[in-house]
Amino acid sequence: MLFIISTKKCYPQKAKILRCDILMVNLERREHMHTVQILLNTKACSQAMEKRFRAMTHIHNVCVKHGNKLLSRLEHDKAYQDAMEKRLEASKKLDGLQQKVPSNRKEERELEKQVTAMEKEIKSINQVLNAIRADMGLSKSGFESWLKKCGSRFSHLASSQQVQAEAGRVWAGVEKVLFGNGAKLHYKKEYEVTTITGKSNANGAKFHPETMTVEWTGLTLACKLPNRISEQRYIAEALQGTIAYCTISRKMFPSGWRYYALVCVRSDAPVNGRTSGKGPMGIDPGTSTMAAVSNEAVFLEELAPRVPEYNRQIRDLQYRMDISKRMTNPGKYHEDGTINRKNHDRWVFSKGYKRMRQELRSIYRKKAAYIKQDHEERANRFLANADTIYVEHMDYRALQKRARNTSRKEDASPAKQKDGTVRLIRKFKKKKRFGRSLNNRAPASFITILKRKAGLLGVTVLEIQTRTYKASQYNHVTGECVKTLLSERKKEIGGHTVQRDLYSAFLIQNPSDGLAVPDQQACKKRFQNFLQLQERLIQTMKSTGQSMPQCFGF
Q: What is residue 549's predicted lDDT score, i.e. its pLDDT?
């Protein structure tokens, strides 16, 4: 039984949830909101619940089909494409004008006039594009009104607001295709739809805190409270406030689907007696580790260390599923084991395969839950040692991409030739970067959780200017920046050996006023304390049998 309280900034006037386990805050009205996840008792109506999610899957796919049709029409619309070409040309001219450097005041005024005229032209072109899209029905309101016809067929299963919310989700995908990096809209399989979202507590799934029940289009679902009295009190405290809306969510377990009510409440989330520490803390985030330094303790921890165990279970189960699928579909494969694309027969799956597929979804759920729990606990430990946190900004999206340039390794490797001879060659370097580590460890998620929890406890989180700070290169004793290889995990600072990541976190802990460079005097003042804390950490790890060869060498 899982109860989750979480908070985040949001805009309630848009009344939309993309992830149902986050809190939202209206910055203008300063309205704080949080969500409470409560297990539902659906033993007597499990088939009815599955029927509702099948209906929502159909609604989603119908809306996706409509969106793809409109996008295809837009792609072949000559007036729209001509306007797009004009806007592209105008944007290029505007960029060229903005890059010009006038030599005198007269040229500056003339350049300003040209820039203003070009901006007006782009604005008028955008108005034409918006009008074409609106005429076709490519808008959020257009999607919602169009989906009313399909939604009316399922009015006994899903409310009008729930249908509108699903239309809003599809429209978010359309916006990515139109204005972002999206390629096309994708259909969803039945098990991929895991949430049904509402907009208010007066329509759709209505949560009643007095009776702890959810009323949803003819169904009355009772909530399962935890056995512990402390958890019951915590839930009661978290539900103190105005109920904004209720979302129905489901998660896969080995025994089947379990359903939850995600109740969004307009109030501050309880902190459960946690308090923050005192003093500054510096955090040096990595792809798989987090290094943190405060005045009281230092941390160098591996994010979600048990993830490889889950990956091993997933790999073994996928291997068994592949064997089962090949045995039940021999005609779908060539003799060499590759898939026969010319065979258009339906895939046949055994009962054992279906059970393994259900187990696989359960393992993925456990893995995600474990990563989130590990991040939550680590964030609590960090916040207990600081009232101000300085963190280095990391562009994880860039780190997960493959390298652009092709290069060879410096050292030559022996390669056996067809005639039996051995020749030394310089192999190409792999273009893979940190995509797998980021997927397994989710460091960006940890930073998000840390900031959310810090806001609840009143802890300030500030980001340093990474380009100028150079925490991995700076030496506070000499005041110089020296580049080091990524493989070098230790550094010599003032005659002392320090761990590279911990030392970077130490530098981040002591920034200047502008957060642009480290404060050299503050670093010198706190350096001896840092050395003592580092030595204490190493001795504790050795005494308890902990090892991190990639960081400490043991």
A: 73
